[in-house]
Amino acid sequence: MQIVEVTEVWQLALCFEVRQQTEFMGHSPSMHEEFDEKLEDINDKYIYIIAYDDEKALGTARLSKEDDLDDDSYFLSRVSIVDDQQGSGIGQAIIKYAEKVALDHGRHRIVLHAVKDAVEFYEKTGYEGHGDYFVDVTVPVLTMDKQLNHDDHWEQLNHD
Description:
- The structure is a single chain.
- The protein has 160 residues and is α+β, with helices and mostly antiparallel strands.
- Helix content is 30%, strand content 34%.
- It contains five helices and seven strands.
- The protein has a seven-stranded mixed β-sheet with strand order 1-2-3-4-5-7-6.
């Protein structure tokens, strides 16, 4: 398995493939809801991450620059793992890789909105919840974040 920052169109196509296959809270979002990117923002605002094996998509995530975040933070979203790979550790590996990418881009904090069923997963990877649940589009979510540290991340990668 490889996890990489997307640099080629075929890799981006794999990201979109995973997002189309993955149900969110028991339903499949509309194409308009799921693919909210604008073409002019794809290279400037978003960083896509893909996990794949022999060109078979396994999981994906997206980091983005958001206007309501400081310049030291990225927003993590669209974390999706194909159904037959759920619980295999790919999700944790993608999160760790996203953290490495954020650090490589000079960011030291990741913010995300977690659905209730995913809060425990993110807590296990070091994210902390803040405030109360609120409705994002149609789903209650909790804002969570993690401060990133080069030393902690390096040690974590070497022990996995």
